[in-house]
Write a structure and sequence with these properties.
It is built from twelve helices and ten strands. By secondary structure, it is α+β, with helices and mostly antiparallel strands. The structure holds acetoacetyl-coenzyme A.
């Protein structure tokens, strides 16, 4: 078919590529931006210094619907799409990446997993509380010897007939000390490898569950990261998620969506640092003029903006795929890989633009540089994202 015929057909059928945000998306952006400025910004430096969990702010975010953004309203959620989730994550992360990771884990690793794969009873009992922020969730996959190599689970859940008996240790768990409900991945049958892994809902108050030491971290210091120990914790049978042996796939599927959230977090950190560098360069003077008038600085701003826009397109595309029922395993890995690298590069440059002021806490960008690093590590390191992308390419 000649090209002009194809184009005429597509025009007739109204096929367009639309880069605009809808009115609703713009309103969601403004609401999240307003919340970040008024509720997260005051005290963000202090919380970082003290490694203080933003409990009050998390409570407010629950009330406003930020903790169950994509959950169906019948379970107490906000019923939004993944594009809205990205927008909210970007706005929160521009100001406070510690608060935004709490939102991300609760939304995409916990609520999404439960809503998509949980039983109706599990949704009624747990999701309704998690989506409204009455309770906080955590996702427990990593172990001392199972980080990137997630199939090497040592935590065991032995089938005892009427319950499972959970034993083991989980590491670097976001919301570890503050959560009420934990999605725990464990080996139920070692012989079966990844097909012998299951996911369970565990309540904090159950006997044998112990919240271990809090990590003293480089960045996202306001988020609450702990080791968790399980010693003969009895899990009722009905708290297993999905069919027997579904746990590894549950973790992988859930993480694919989680990676969109972390990519959006990285995007927000980068955008926030860029805006600070841009604004600072317009007021700071050197050699008789504002430093933005020096090409050395103007070119840095141009590079930062360019890279952020490139990352934003990947992040939005992945969210769009999720919203449209297209497999997003590869696109979310690409979005996270790119956005996290951009976050790291842009924050380093933002510190550089600020000069000596960039090295002190008052100016925020040093915290953003420290916060950016984790986006290249959690929910799959950059190297893991390359495994996912390259396997996806070679499978096609
Ligand atoms: N969806 C469905 N199934 C999937 C899948 C996906 N996205 N990815 C893999 N699988 C399936 C495979 O098809 C395979 O099943 P079959 O044998 O039936 O075909 C099975 O899972 C095993 O897959 P692989 O052979 O690819 O597994 P692997 O051992 O080579 O590991 C990996 C692959 C991509 C490296 C994976 O282990 C991985 O993602 N590791 C990183 C884990 C991670 O992201 N951890 C982050 C911790 S959570 C966190 O950080 C949260 C926080 O608190 C912020």
């Amino acid at each position: 078919m000649v090209l002009k015929t194809i184009f005429a057909i597509s025009k007739k059928q109204n096929y367009t590529m639309d880069f605009n945000l809808s009115e609703e998306h713009l309103m969601i952006r403004d609401a999240a931006r307003d919340f970040a400025r008024t509720e997260l910004l005051p005290g963000v430096i202090e919380r970082d210094n003290k490694q203080e969990f933003p409990a009050e702010q998390v409570k407010k975010m629950g009330e406003l619907g930020f903790l169950g953004l994509m959950v169906d309203p019948k379970y107490g959620g906000s019923g939004m799409d993944a594009i809205s989730y990205v927008i909210v994550m970007e706005e929160l992360s521009k100001v406070d990446a510690s608060a935004s990771v709490i939102v991300s884990v609760n939304n995409s690793l916990v609520c999404y997993g439960l809503e998509t794969y949980g039983s109706e009873a599990q949704k009624q009992k747990y999701l309704t509380k998690l989506a409204t922020g009455q309770s906080i969730g955590a996702f427990c996959l990593s172990e001392p010897e199972a980080g990137s190599d997630a199939t090497s689970q040592r935590t065991t859940a032995i089938d005892m007939g009427d319950h499972y008996l959970l034993n083991g240790t989980k590491n670097w768990i976001t919301n570890g000390g503050s959560a009420d409900f934990y999605l725990v991945i464990a080996q139920t049958d070692k012989e079966k490898g990844h097909k012998g892994i299951n996911a369970f809902i565990v309540e904090k108050t159950w006997e044998g569950f112990e919240v271990g030491p809090k990590e003293d971290k480089l960045g996202i210091r306001g988020s609450d990261t702990h080791t968790l120990n399980f010693n003969d914790v009895k899990i009722p049978k009905e708290n297993r998620i999905g069919e027997d042996g579904f746990g590894f796939k549950f973790a992988m599927k859930t993480l694919s969506g989680g990676r969109i959230g972390i990519a959006a977090q990285a995007l927000g950190i980068a955008q926030g640092a860029y805006e600070m560098a841009r604004d600072y360069s317009k007021i700071r003077k050197a050699f008789g003029t504002e430093i933005c008038n020096h090409q050395a600085i103007a070119f840095k701003l141009a590079d930062m903006h360019l890279e952020i826009e490139a990352a934003r397109h990947l992040v939005m595309k992945s969210a769009w795929e999720k919203d449209n029922g297209i497999n997003y395993d590869m696109s979310s890995a690409m979005a996270k890989l790119k956005a996290s690298k951009v976050a790291m590069d842009v924050t380093v440059e933002a510190v550089q633009v600020h000069g000596g002021n960039g090295f002190v806490k008052e100016y925020h960008v040093e915290r953003m540089m420290r916060d950016a690093k984790i986006t290249q590590i959690y929910e799959g390191t950059s190297e893991v994202q390359k495994i996912v992308i390259s396997r996806g390419l070679l499978r096609d």
